[in-house]
Design brief:
Blueprint lengths: L22 E3 L6 E3 H7 L5 H6 L16 E3 L6 E3 L38 E2 L10 E5 L2 E5 L4 E2 L2 E2 H8 L4 H13 L7 H5 L1 H7 L3 H25 L16 H41 L6 H11 L4 H25 L1
Antiparallel strand pairs: 1-2, 3-4, 5-6, 6-7, 8-9
Helix pairs in contact: 3-9, 6-7, 6-10, 7-8, 7-10, 8-9
């Protein structure tokens, strides 16, 4: 009759029951004990069951057969089905439990390279942790207290916003691999605006200034050729000359290179900023945890007014440039 208790843990010593153990079961709630633990306490200590009138139940064990490994359609890395993102390349695995074709799922195990993977695990599926990191043969739970590059994972989540899964995935990879590259599509197309959106104001101001300087040949061309509907000024510069066209093209190429660099490194820049500011807040001895979390949220997050300010500033700089030239010429 005691077979059902084998493998369960004694609530006194925390040790799992084995066939060789001498066990005692509470006659009222059914909680199992080692006989020595029962004698040590003198009675059942599972007060919660006695108060509610409930009966002890064995812990629900997840069947290993129910856990399916999903191979990423981009890189072929095998991930537990509980993960939201591929641990190798970061591709979202949402909906991976459906019936859509996933060609890498048919790759033989012998052809798969082993290595450490990092990913996300849903909190409802994992009471012990909010994230999971997968390594060959096991799943490591990452909780809010887990150390990610010297910063608690929970603090990173508060800083970026708890729904910023792609950023957190990049942060985990940066800490685990010491890498710095993680492509950010928004930072690639709108580098200066993304910097202000993520409160990286110094980098945003620098990129905005460089963008404006690189746009000067184009602004000069548009204002002098009537491209905007009317000729605003007429300088001595021949905007249709081969030299001027080469300068304009060179500025466009430099601008594109800057966008690529921002797209590749924006996440890492944000990661280093987050680490620095969170560490600074947590280093204050007089601050309690509640206030620290509040300040971390305030320092991080997003800034829509910052984006609006950057857009208005960029437009005003262009208009002022045209206005000055129209007054001078």
């Amino acid at each position: 009759m005691l077979e059902k208790y084998i493998g369960e843990k004694c609530i006194v010593c925390g040790e799992a029951f084995t066939d060789a153990d001498d066990m005692v079961v509470c006659p009222d709630c059914g909680t199992p004990y080692h006989r020595t633990c029962w004698l040590e306490k003198g009675s059942c200590i599972n007060d919660e069951l006695h108060t509610t009138g409930q009966i002890w139940q064995p812990a629900v064990k997840e069947s290993a057969q129910e856990i399916k490994n999903i191979r990423c359609v981009r890189c072929g890395t095998e991930n537990p089905s509980t993960m939201h993102f591929c641990g190798q390349c970061g591709l979202p695995l949402n909906g991976s439990e459906g019936d859509e074709p996933r060609p890498f799922n048919d790759v033989p195990d012998a052809q798969r390279e082993n290595g450490s993977n990092y990913g996300f695990q849903n909190a409802e599926q994992s009471p012990d942790g909010i994230f999971g990191a997968a390594v060959p043969g096991k799943t490591i739970k990452l909780t809010a207290q887990s150390d990610i590059g010297g910063i608690r994972l929970g603090d990173f989540m508060e800083y970026t916003g708890r729904s910023s899964f792609s950023l957190i995935a990049s942060f985990i990879r940066f800490a685990a691999t010491k890498g710095k590259v993680s492509f950010n599509l928004a930072a690639f197309f709108f580098p200066e605006f993304y910097m202000f959106y993520r409160k990286m104001n110094k980098k945003g101001a620098l990129i905005l200034a460089i963008t404006f300087i690189l746009s000067l040949p184009s602004l000069l061309y548009y204002g002098q050729t009537g491209y905007m509907g009317m000729v605003l000024f007429n300088t001595a510069i021949n905007v249709k000359s081969h030299t001027f066209i080469m300068i304009t093209n060179a500025c466009s190429i430099i601008s594109m290179c800057m966008s690529i660099i921002c797209g590749l490194y924006a996440n890492y820049w944000y990661y280093t900023k987050a680490k620095k500011e969170i560490a600074s807040i947590r280093s204050e001895e007089s601050i309690d945890d509640k206030e620290a979390v509040s300040r971390i949220r305030s320092k991080g997050g997003t800034s829509v007014p910052g984006v609006i300010g950057a857009v208005v500033t960029e437009m005003l700089l262009s208009l002022m440039f045209w206005l000055v030239l129209s007054l001078l010429f």
